[in-house]
Amino acid sequence: QYEIYLGGTAGAVPRLPTDLTRLEELAEHRLGAGPVGYVAGGAGDGGTARANRAALERHRIVPRLLRDVTERDLSVEVLGRALPAPLALAPVGVLSIVHPDAEPAAARAAAAQGVPYILSSASSTPMEQVAEVMGDAERWFQLYWAKDREVTRSFLNRARTAGYTVLVVTLDTPMLGWRPRDLERAYLPFLHGVGTANYFSDPAFQAGLAKPVHEDPDAAVMHFAGMFGDPGKTWPDLAFLREQWDGPIVLKGVLHPDDARLAADAGMDGVLVSNHGGRQVAGCVAAADALPRVAEAVGERLTVLFDSGVRTGDDIFKALALGARAVLVGRPYAYGLALDGQAGVEHVIRCLLAELDLTLALSGHRGPGTIGPDSLDGGAA
Ligand code: FNR
């Protein structure tokens, strides 16, 4: 933060707020009502998204003193990879609705800051183009598990060839949640062809069309809508993904400890405790309340990751204390992108990491390794 204060002595203040909860307000002025409603909105009355914040705020850190925190190191090992910090950018699709530079700008920002970028299946840019701007940087691919097996197979082949290493399979979206802010405007980016780039560029997808995408885009959108989710899938279906993907697989959206155990039994490598930022199940358990139960059930067998509601460095600290190995952020970087492109995303990452580093130091920790249940008031329960 001294960089920021020193900038102040030269008359420069940050272009964006360092309190990331304020980015949403500013983005509201910048974006139209449709896009901001889509990004900010939650399922039902928004209660799940509020519960995510409330649960993180309810937990309080209990600092330790006199533990020599001069040298600190945020690095962690996640799924066999050495990461500089316990942070990754969550898969957020359709980013062209907030900024024309879209996913490639977010990916460049992640690469510049050394945090993994998780590219959404529903990105507005084909996965190969995003990979190209990332050089050797760590990139993961999020799969929306299509109804059509050939399309899934083709996505996995393309992702592997483009250098994505970890597969994150989102299971909480077999259909879209009830999202009143979008419903009242009848606003769904996909129906305007946004977020379909990976599909429209896919040979297996194209093979299912009567006419090429450019000749009949409406039919292509309808074909996409028909295969996007599949409510018929069950646990044994995971064997197919396990066969198709050699690298680590993480299941996204796990909230029940029994589902976490089923994930381990199915040969998965990790679970991402998440309620999709409160966008899917209305009245859902707060992700931070589900986290310690999942960690207790499978923490020894699987890598446990977390998202939904993280807005500050101390939120990251709390998630680690509750059993996560690393956390993801979604909306904050989407707002950073909306407000200042790649630089805005880098600003968000840098604020989170600087605040995490300070929270560690001020709480008596030199790194994530010593954070545990006793770092929080009342333990992790
Ligand atoms: C998402 N999320 C999401 N998840 C996913 O697996 N695939 C996707 O394409 C998307 N798309 C998406 C779009 C938008 C606009 C948002 C806000 C979120 C969910 C995302 O990965 C993550 O779970 C949440 O964003 C985490 O919550 P916070 O950090 O936004 O509170």
From TrEMBL:
SUPFAM superfamilies: FMN-linked oxidoreductases. Pfam families: FMN_dh (PF01070). FMN binds at P91, V92, G93, S120, Q142, T170, S274, D307, S308, G309, V310, R311, G330, R331. It comes from the Bacteria. The active site is at H276. Its cofactor is FMN. InterPro entries: Aldolase_TIM, Alpha-hydoxy_acid_DH_FMN, FMN-dep_DH, FMN_HAD, FMN_hydac_DH_AS. One of its GO terms (molecular function) is FMN binding. Glyoxylate binds at Y38, Y144, R179, K252, H276, R279. Residues 12-381 form the FMN hydroxy acid dehydrogenase domain. Keywords: Flavoprotein, FMN, Oxidoreductase. Belongs to the FMN-dependent alpha-hydroxy acid dehydrogenase family. This is Oxidoreductase.
